[in-house]
Amino acid sequence: MIFLAEWWDLRDLGNPVGKLLELLGDHGPDWLPYAVSAIVGSITIVVFLLVSLLAFAWVERRLLGRMQARLGPNRVGPWGVFQSIADAIKFVTKEAITSRNVDRWMFWAAPVLVAVPVLVVFAVLPFGEGMVLADLNVGVLFVIAVGSVTAIPIFMAGWSSNNKFSLLGAMREVAMLISYELPQVLALLGVVVFAGTMRMNGIVGWQDEHNTWLIFLQPLAVLIYLIAGTVEINRTPTDIAEAESEIVAGYHTEYSGIKFGMFWLTEYFAGFAIAAIIATVYLGGWTLWGLEEWVPGWIIFLAKLYGLFWLFIWMRGTLPRLRIDQLMGFAWKFLLPLALINIFVAGLEVLIWRENDLAAEAVLPGFAIANLVLAGVLIVAWARFLGRARPSWRPARARLVKELGAVVYGQEG
Amino acid sequence: MDDVGSVVAFWMLSVMTLGAAVMVVAVRNLIYAVLFLILSFIGVAGLYLTLSADFVAIAQVLIYAGAVSVLILFAVLLTPRAARDNAETFLQVPGLVLATLVAVTIGAIALVTDWNEATRGAFPETAGAIGEALLDKYVLPFEIASVILLAAMIGAIVLVRED
Amino acid sequence: MSVELGHYLMVGAILFSIGLYVALAKRNAVGILMGIELMFNAVNLTLISFSRFVSPPTDVSGHVFVVFVITVAAAEAALALALAVVVYRNRETIDIDRINLMRW
Hints:
The complex is a heterotrimer of chains A (413), B (163) and C (104). Chain A is an all-alpha fold and 413 residues long. In chain A, 65% of the residues lie in helices and 0% in strands. Chain A has helices at residues 14-27, 32-67, 83-93, 104-114, 116-121, 139-149, 151-160, 164-195, 200-209, 214-217, 219-233, 257-281, 297-318, 324-355, 360-388. Chain B has six helices and no strands. Chain B has helices at residues 4-26, 30-50, 54-77, 92-112, 127-135, 139-160. Helix content of chain B is 74%, strand content 0%. Chain B is globular and about 55 Å long. Chain B is mostly helical and 163 residues long. In chain B, helix 1 packs antiparallel against helix 2. By secondary structure, chain C is mostly helical. Chain C has a single domain, classed as Helix Hairpins (Orthogonal Bundle). The radius of gyration of chain C is 17 Å and the shape is elongated. Chain C starts with a helix and ends in a 13-residue tail after the last helix. Classes of the chains: A mainly alpha (413), B mainly alpha (163), C mainly alpha (104). Chains in contact: A-B, B-C. Chains B and C meet through helix 1, helix 2, helix 3, helix 4 and helix 5 of B and helix 1, helix 2 and helix 3 of C.
């Protein structure tokens, strides 16, 4: 792929920035380009996220309305498009209440810190060939490590609120994050085994070079990562940390105004982050089989990202909420063993490929078909295996409470 | 390492690490102590980055800031009626004296000794080299470490199981 | 002005002694564990700085050692916290002044 690398070539927004940095480096002190690139990159990421948020807060509610046979927001502006702006103004202008018995410092620090890990994730994700803020050579590991730190501000929020529902929600969220981190890591490791690098641009480059997407080579891992990612961003099928029918609103029960707004927008940002990671790692990032020669890479990337986010909305609109024991059991009993088997198979395949020095065009389609079949067989077999171990106390037919030993008032003895 | 960036980063991260560590001692609330401990861990990870140890820095964030600290928080929460203060025992003064002595001794040794420093640049990349070393030269310790992890996991489960 | 090996060693030394003080003087069992973790971190920092400044450029033994130390520290933390929870269950306290069943 040859870009012109002139500053006006907007197929890669890194070009104009690079030109600017070159100019600064020629005429200023040598630390200036570093500082400017960091500032420009951070501002770009934040602006991109806020614009996407404003758009998708509206899109999501319209789509949910469609899925649930109602209209959704339709009053503010044509088709309600200004609803997000109205909501944003409402968040900012409402009173941010601080109850008397909260732990003040932590109560204020938690909403500020909660957005940090999610924003930092975007630093290593390439929006285009040169459009990456920090192309770390341990990018995949970085994404996982930063994701694991999310638990701390959430715990701070829950603990400082001095409210049992907040604390319960925080404990649920932390337990969930820890449990789903394992399948997530193992799913991403399969990719690292194939691509042989943890650099995000390297993974995109590998997929471009071999003319395939890792979703075909690692179908099981994609599924595992998608589920684990949905849990991490804690939207409806898995939002037990803030299940309003069980524990009021979880760790942000005591929060209002813009402080609640921070938690709310962090959830969206996390959704974008997970979608961006899947798009980069499994769906070829900013490449699309040669189309990136004509269409800017970042548009392709954003299209994939928004498509995946639409998938999250779809899941939210159609799936009911799970119980906490179901969710934790699913991580440990279902996802973890399958992820382990998946990474073992991936290692085996790469070993066969490398040891026999086979041509990539010959092996990769075979691997793709084998892995797809394996994924189907494993999922069905493992689900049947787990489903067979049915608890023995489950009644074969409906019984009266009295038969089970309960006491019915008025009929004691 | 004498470019402006490294020097500034080193001093900022050192102050952050040591300041947070001092706060672990100073604050009266155990939960705050744990949070400052996490800040200290993150500062150490930053110091690793200035030493071009990228893999270890990320592992530090993943394991210390992400996992060990959460374990500590859980342990604090699972002992609800225990004292939540961060007080000292009668060993406060002896501990202070001993810690100062140790600091002075190590510092003096570190400054006096001629460490035979090699003049060389940073590692270009460490993750691959560490991986090869783990599965080649250090394969036996690697296996033993995994056995230790398994034993610790089973041990922890057996210890806290209620039956 | 530049940053040399000595600077990192000094940071490591101070961090180690803070950890030592915490481990010696704190009353809460969880606090003691935190001191031990601080000491682990100081040792790791020293190992990494020696690896950067002293060992030959192709040798990553220092890093591998740190990976092992982190692994063992994680295992140790899990076990120690499990012990703290068990002690709490039996005695309703994790104050080491009052865990004195074995004292002469």
